[in-house]
Amino acid sequence: MFLQLLFNGISLGAVYALIAVGFAIVFSVLKFSNFAHGGMISICAYIGFFFQKTVKPTPPIWVTILFTSLCGIVMSLFLDRIVYASIRRNKSPKNYYFLSSLTISIIITAILNVFFSKNPLAYPMLFSSTTFNVGNIRISRMDTMILIVSVVLLVLLIFLIDKTKVGLAMRAVSIDPETSKLMGINSNFIILMTFSLAGILAGVSGVLLGCKYGVFPDLGQSMMIKGFIASVIGGLGSLGGAIAAAFLLGIIEMFWTYVMGSLSTPVMTFVVMLLFLFIRPQGISGRFAKEKV
Amino acid sequence: MNNYQLGLIMNSCISVIEVVSVFIITSLAGMFSLGQAAFMTISAYLTFVLAKMLHLPIILTAAIGLGMSGLCAYIIAVPTLRLRKDYFTLITMGFGEMMASIVVMLEKYTKGSIGFSSIPKVKSIFWIIVATTIAVIFFAWQLKRSRFGRMCIALKTDETAAKSFGIDVYHLKIKVYVIASCISGLAGILYGLKNRVITPDGFSWNLSAEMQIFLFFGGTNSLTGAVISAFGLKLLPEMLRNLTLFGVNMQEYRTVIYCLLILLVINFRPEGMLGDKEMSPSRMVRAMKRRLKREKS
Looking at this predicted complex, what is its ipTM? Predict the structure, then answer.
């Protein structure tokens, strides 16, 4: 039983990690809490759902994931164009970023609510048999797929940020956008790049969450909170910390649900977060994103 | 006026109280809370559930509810307000989620998601709500003009500068948050008294976000702007009751309309409808005089 729960927890943590990283990557570069990510996840889940439903013959899941993440990129660039670009141009305070992203998240959920109602839609079955056995633990194929896709994506992302020139530029912009402009980095391009990465992550996690929980308008928002909590525990703006915290959170949640039932998990995650802030306010990563004067 | 219109005015008054509480947090101290609805939940449920279980008068249980809101706010504020502002926002949001699930968990007492409806009927509820609203607005107005309020505004404008003037920023923020949460709690109790039923869905995350939107629409630095926009925007969907779009009643689009309005405001008039001007009688008289003079000359 222990191994079973551990595996399920890791798989859950992998999805949380995708969400937390999508949130943290925008936070680390632009220094605002991107609430729109939740709405993006919801809408991507719907896009993936209808893509899978309408296109004949039914495409394999990886095609859906690719298509949805492309849609994620297009959508986040579109949002940047109509909302964030004018804030950047006016050099308005960070509050406005925050408020617009909040608004976008709500608007997406509200529109989905009007057109598709609150009832969850189920993804078509992906696998003929839902589970397989390893030793005496039973593993769900869905969880395995989710785990593999998430881990591959996270590894690619970390490679991009740590090893490539674009990643270096992103890290520079996250430290100081004005100075990196002086150093010949196209800050605007890097910001668009960050939004696109967040879009890809939203697209992939939308499809995965849709497969796991069904598609409904509040899907993104309710999952988003877990992502927020993970990135707070990991230390805001730190990708490594967010990933570690997400896996930790997933495992704790699985065990807690097994022992105490699923109703009290929001209470548990909140208390874990509050305790963590008491004991180690700088987060797991230890890099404390302090506000500068 | 018939009952329907009175009900609309009461709804608007309650939304004004909510927005005043957000005004105190955001406009005075420059913090963003996305969990104010949680304090409405706490005090409303405590008030009515205790009143029913222990057969106590509502006034007494309401005091317990408000006290509990303040206490919870204090517990959240102590670890969070030392950190940067973003933590505060995320944690208040998590708190809102937690309260909703606690209500469902304690189904035995709260009736869970069906909603708690054994709320006693109160006479002349309309006047109670209107009087409370006016009192709350007056309180916030005095708070803004007092030494406390000026300290808060200094803190909002520049935290480091405020610190260097000897303002105890950390404790000031805690006080602001506790006061505002008690006001939210008051709104929750009035909401329960008016609707005679409270559900966890009624105090969802969207309500907290809606308050923030109302506030920004009216202007973050103007109390009168916030009050007017809260009152007006709450009434707005009622005016669209008879219209339909894509075969769906316009009221369904309420949230969409709010969001579009706020996006327009952010893009074209970032400081809100009233900016940082306040509308007060003396100011209006002065403006009238100026206009008369201009017409004469």
Answer: 0.80
CA distance A122 to chain B (A): 24
B2's CB contacts (< 8 A; 6+ apart) are none
Q: Phi and psi of A57, rounded to 5°?
A: -70, 155
Asked if A103's CB is within 8 angstroms of B259's CB, the reply is yes
B204 is in which domain, residue-wise? 3-296
Query: Is B42 within 8 Å of chain A by CB?
Result: no
Cβ count within 10 A of residue A258: 15
Bond preceding residue A57 cis, omega within 30 of 0: yes
The CATH number for B292's domain is 1.10.3470
Query: Is the Cβ of B98 closer than 8 Å to some Cβ of chain A?
Result: yes
Q: What's the structural domain count of chain B?
A: 1
Token pair, residue A43, equals: 């809408």
Determine how many CB atoms are found less than 10 A away from the CB of residue B199. 19
Ranges of residues in chain B with a pLDDT under 70 are 242-251, 270, 272-281
Q: List, in order, residues 6 or more apart from A284 with CB less than 8 Å away.
A: A233, A234, A235, A238, A241, A244, A245, A248
Please give the helix or strand (H or E) that residue B143 lies within, else none.
helix B125-145
- Please name the residues between 143 and 162 in chain B that touch chain A, using a CB distance below 8 Å: 159-160
Nearest to A250, CA basis, from A50, A14, A2: A14
Pair B96, B205: CB distance under 8 Å:
yes
* 3-state helix vs strand vs coil in chain A, percent to 5: 75, 5, 20
Tell me the pLDDT tens digit for each residue of A77-115. Answer: 998 888 888 888 877 777 788 888 888 888 888 888 888
Do residues B28 and B140 lie in contact, with contact meaning Cβ atoms separated by under 8 Å?
no
Check if the beta carbon of residue A221 is closer than 8 Å to that of residue A39: yes
- The helix or strand, by DSSP H or E, that contains position B108, with its residue range, turns out to be helix B107-110
Q: Give the C-alpha distances (Å, rounded to integers) separating A26 from A8, A171, A215.
A: 28, 12, 25
DSSP code per residue over B182-222: HHHHHHHHHHHHHHS-B-GGGG-HHHHHHHHHHHHHH-TT-
CA distances from residue B262 to A101, A114, B11, B229, B266 in whole angstroms, order as listed:
11, 19, 21, 11, 6
Residue A202 in this model has a pLDDT that exceeds 60 = yes
Residues paired with A122 in a beta bridge: none
SS3 of residue B59 by DSSP: helix
pLDDT of A292 reads 47
pLDDT tens track for B9-21: 888 899 999 999 9
| Model pLDDT for residues B71-104, shown as the tens digit of each residue | 999 998 888 888 777 888 888 888 888 888 888 8
β partners of residue B198:
B116
